Amino acid sequence: MDTKKRTLFIAFSSQKGGVGKSTFTTLAASTLHYRLGYNVAVFDADFPQHSLMKMKKRDLAMVMENEALKKLAYKQFTTINKKAYPIMQHRADSVLEAAQEFANTSSVPLDVIFFDLPGTVNTPGILKALAGMHHIFTPITADRVVMESTLIFTQLLQDVIMKKGETSIETINLFWNQVDGRERTPLYAVYHNLIHQLGLSLMQSQVKNSTRFRKESEVNSKTVFRSTVMPPDERLMKACQLDLFISEFLKIIQL
């Protein structure tokens, strides 16, 4: 009997740039790996920018230059006694095979492999890569162009790829990002109804807008939010309701 634990393949994916897919990949991976005790790896297949590969280099340099962060990092790694999660660069058309090989040969059983995939269906191999995910999470904002692009993309995944049956996809989950808590726009109600009519799944948690999603740790910073080598600060997570998002995320993927 094969008792080998299954490694979940998860992607934050969208057809629209700037909605936070790479940021959420980092936030989720770092929270699960450094704070919650899971073992995580990341494949950066977002050619040509490969932003997560570049982010890790910047994060390591920032820790070495910042005494407060250096102490935080030392305390973290001696407490949890595990290395930073690996981030590997790969092409979208063969990333599934590379990830499966990595999971099979890893000295540490992997709970989740996150994939940062290109934001266009025209990229060679992207639909195959998406079909190989177990769970897909798609950030949306109350912007007409973003919504139109996202709903078309999500329907493509649900109606074409999932219904063909040749897929590993178990759930596709839309979630609100960059929500302005002061704004009472009727757009949210309109889009909620539309998402429901299309039979798509929308998460209950909404991530509030924050400038921290768009910037990394600064030279004199004493806290961390978006980082590949440390988890986001718990107070900052609570301020933008990222903590509620992670709780719902974990329930969906059933780790």
Automatic annotation (TrEMBL):
It comes from Algoriphagus iocasae. This is Cellulose biosynthesis protein BcsQ. The keyword Nucleotide-binding applies. Keywords: ATP-binding, Nucleotide-binding. InterPro entries: DNA_Partitioning_ATPase (IPR050678), P-loop_NTPase (IPR027417), YlxH/NBP35 (IPR033756). One of its GO terms (molecular function) is ATP binding. Signal peptide: none annotated.
